């Protein structure tokens, strides 16, 4: 069981991070290609934040999978786990959009044009805002998913 | 429903906190320096990061307070407590920003306004590190203090 958990964790992480990378890449490549240092900073922060959400969810998700495996309901466990992953992914995209909205309200500047110019102030502020949202909200979000599973 | 409301409350408070704090600090730094050089940007980002660390710590207590009052059928009190903790965290972050100037002036014996105007990145980074360490150290104590105001029922043992 532990061996299977390690393999499953590895697979889930690779798939989740790859999908996150490809989804966010489109946004960043629409700003500038190849990416400059400021855009890279924000891109890396977004991927890091996505990983944090996955980490928080995975801790609870693994316990759920183990529980359902012992009850011979691993199929249902995998389906529920995958639904939770999709919710996590949606949450990350939502937080990314909220970050862009917050920066628009705060700075009144075209963030894409500023990132293309390599403005570190904008990139830093966006990175901090996104990470603050992720660290503040990812645990309550995991609680919400677990509550939905119980229902 | 409870969890969803909790996330919504934290999201709204988080947005208000970051927008208001960023704007206030930006206005404050604009008064202090003639132009935004790299040193000012480094300090500005550190201030926002330290405020974010405080918010992350206090958000756990806000979440606990809201859940507790929601379970006791007292959502109004839950929102009130959350708002008060949020205001407290905001005020502390702002006070910490001002206090850090005093700490840095004691450490370096330099006039920080002049150094920031001269684009002294070393000084700005030192200030940033002081701020972030203060936030990491004080954040948990601040959330413990906030938690002590929640009227949890006393256990009989």
Compose a concise summary of this entry:
Chain A is mainly α and 151 residues long.
Give the secondary structure arrangement, pairings included.
The complex is a heterodimer of chains A (151) and B (157).
Chain A: H1 2-31, H2 37-70, H3 74-107, H4 111-116, H5 120-150
Chain B: H1 2-32, H2 38-71, H3 75-108, H4 112-117, H5 121-147
Overview of this structure, please?
- The complex is a heterodimer of chains A (about 150) and B (about 160).
- The model of chain A has no long low-confidence stretch (mean pLDDT about 85).
- Chain A has about 150 residues and is mostly helical.
- Chain A has helices spanning about 1-30, 35-70, 75-105, 110-115, 120-150.
- Chain A has one domain.
- Chain B has one domain (about 1-145).
- Chain B has helices at about 1-30, 40-70, 75-110, 110-115, 120-145.
- In chain B, helix 1 packs antiparallel against helix 2 (about 40-70).
- Chain B is mainly α.
- Chain B has 5 helices and no strands.
- At the A-B interface, helix 3 and helix 5 of A face helix 1 and helix 2 of B.
